[in-house]
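Quick entry, no commentary yet.
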Amino acid sequence: MKAKPEVSPHGVLTDTQVVLLLSRKDWVLHNLLLFCLLTGLRSGEACGLLVEDVVSKGNLGRFIRVAPNDIRQLKSKAAQREVPLHSILENLLDTTLPTTGRLFPTMTVDKVVKRYAFLRRQLPELQGTVFHSTRKWFITQCERTGTPEHFTASIVGHQSARSENKLTYGLYSAGISDEQKREIVDKVRLPKAA
């Protein structure tokens, strides 16, 4: 019998903390931070993104394909997915990020963790959070917009919470549509400074 995994004790970023982090425009983390806040990607998933992982879906915009590659593996089979890119991220792709190779060529999980720890020392308001708190913030935003948990699970790469026995949806459903994913991501809004 498997025990349920314990939830990590680090906190969810508050909107005030998100504003603080974004207004800092940290030269190392800013673009990756934006990416993870608006997709719910894990830092390792984002660090391993390649330009060819960006796929256009016509009027639905661009999506990011999260799949294992030479740079990184994935946490689980459920982690393989396609996530719509928020309009802010589409703009980042068009104006700032590389057009070949890795989207974040200098980033590694180790560098992300160390830089976030540096920011936490500089900004005491971030105490109790880690970079993974960006993922928790995204999931919280999905919940606050009324998104069903199993829809959010498919976007963030969690095992679906749709069926306790995993029979009906787990075996027979193709999952939520790209249109539904797009609608969910478009509802997420970055907080503004007060």
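second:
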Amino acid sequence: MGKKNLNRVYRLSISEDDSHRLIRSFRFSRLGFALTCLTAFIVVLGSLYALIAFTPLRTTIPGYPDAHFRRQAVDNAITIDSLESAITRWKLYSENLSRVLSGDTTLNIDSLLVENE
């Protein structure tokens, strides 16, 4: 099956069964047919990719976050940051309170909060 067979021309004829009237005839070579199939496959894959990537269909893919979940993740990150700063303030307050009860000098909480943030 060398180069000669790839360029050999074939004919596909579609004819009516009863009268044998020719309806359609196609001429092609193996190489042309293979290239046409490959091009059609690439176009179909590209179209499917574009359809999924650039339309709201991508939210139907399991595990893909939609806008609501992304917004909720940002809100959760902000809430976690606020809670971390509140815990830091409580720790400093607790440390200061234990120093007061033990008779030591107190810490300036405002200056420590600025350093920790």
